[in-house]
Task: structure prediction
Amino acid sequence: MEVKPLSNAEFMRFQRFIFEAAGITMPDSKKALITGRLSKRLTALGLESFGEYFKLLASGLHPNEVQMAVDLLTTNETYFFREIQHFEFLRTQALQERSRPQPFRVWSAASSSGEEAYSMAMVLADCMQTTPWEILGTDISTRVIDGARRALYSMERGRHIPPDYLRRFCRKGTGEYEGHLLIDSSLRNKVLFRPLNLNTALPDLGKFDMVFLRNVMIYFNNETKRQVVARVISTLKPGGYFCVGHSESLNDITQAVKMVASAIYQKEA
Result:
């Protein structure tokens, strides 16, 4: 069965759908992305048009399919130790705090498939010694959260892992897992993953020493950015740090933090 092309009117419906579900503004240039990511679902469901699929989503009778559509439209590619300066900064802060009794807590707020959170874990495992530490990884996509918990990645995704960390914290796949790496259980057990929508009121997550929210705000309009950033900053301890992507800025978004390094902000102590 051939799927009919995505019309402009149908595309506008999906733009509204993903904005209402996740606060993401999908520009007109993303029409091909929506077509590519949803076409397989239409084929699997035996649907001929994107209009039919939208009616299915809007019916309220298929919440699992709604989550599937959200997953497909929000998942972004990432890799270990992306924008390495932030991990060097994390290491510096962790070393300064490693004599304290209370846990050092870090939140990967748009963790996607988990590479960012496990990169954090490698840094903290390396430098915190006996100081307890915790990492929370969250994402709106339940599918990528499940993958993060599994912690199995292609070797290509791990090309930026420092060689020492690769030896200490990763296990090389064999047999059917040839060409893959598995994050060691000592790290997997220290990272908690859970689904979470930053575009809604946050549950009680506790307070964090550092939060990474990188390369996701570029998909939000300014008002959504302000709302999301305010929610995230509320979880920071006084003096805590907020890292954004190097192509992002909090200028004109909030006065609650000040820039202390490239794409790194600090909450007032």
